[in-house]
Request: fold
Amino acid sequence: MAQDEWSQVDAYLVGKLLPEDEALEAALARNRQEGLPPIDVSPAQGKLLYLLARLVGARNVLEIGTLGGYSTIWLARATPTDGRVVTLEFSPDHAQVARENIAAAGEGSKVDLRVGPALDLLPVLEKEGAVFDFVFVDADKANNQLYLGWALRLARVGAVVVIDNVVRGGRVLDAASADPDIVGTRRMFELASAEKRWNATAIQTVGAKGWDGFAIGIVEKA
Ligand code: SAH
Ligand code: DHB
Ligand code: MG
Reply:
């Protein structure tokens, strides 16, 4: 079965390239213990986010969708001590677990975790004059078009915007889908297609988290 092989290959790659990591493993264990859905990025994907943020030299990172903070910890580790990761989470329960994981990982001072619907929190960040070098969109897929719009408003020229889960086992192809996640993802691609300021591609992925993919692009001058 394909999924078995994808998971075994992921385990092999992670075994070779990602050293054992107590804080990250403890975060995943706490997430499962607290009953959070197992939809954190995979370890290999988390490291990709970390590497991308390092490549950009990101000091100010925005994450939409914290869950238990697993991806947040990866992004915080890529951020210098005087940098900041703002992460937005709708669920107070998820946010509480994330706070504990982030503190236990020693990243509490870099992470600004805000609780509420992202569409309420993003205008606040704009009023504060926040500008980001790296944006990771990984919340409710139904709003992905709006999140891409916000990412472009809050990101500097040259920033990188990554959007998770844009393939969903191929369901992105279903133009007749009534699933809000698929509708939202397809709307995001409509905007991306029309929006010259986001110079993007998308990559399908298989691995421990099945068949999915992410979109990634650089923010260009208007
Ligand atoms: N980035 C995380 C996974 C996020 S899962 C990781 O890889 O570790 C998606 C999260 O988005 C969930 O915790 C969910 O509660 C949150 N979410 C859903 N709708 C939201 C909204 N409208 N605003 C902010 N967060 C939302
Ligand atoms: C789901 C959400 C995610 O962010 C993810 O990476 C995988 C699955 C979900 O809502 O099912
Ligand atoms: Mg995701």
About this structure: Residues 2-17 form the longest helix (16 residues).
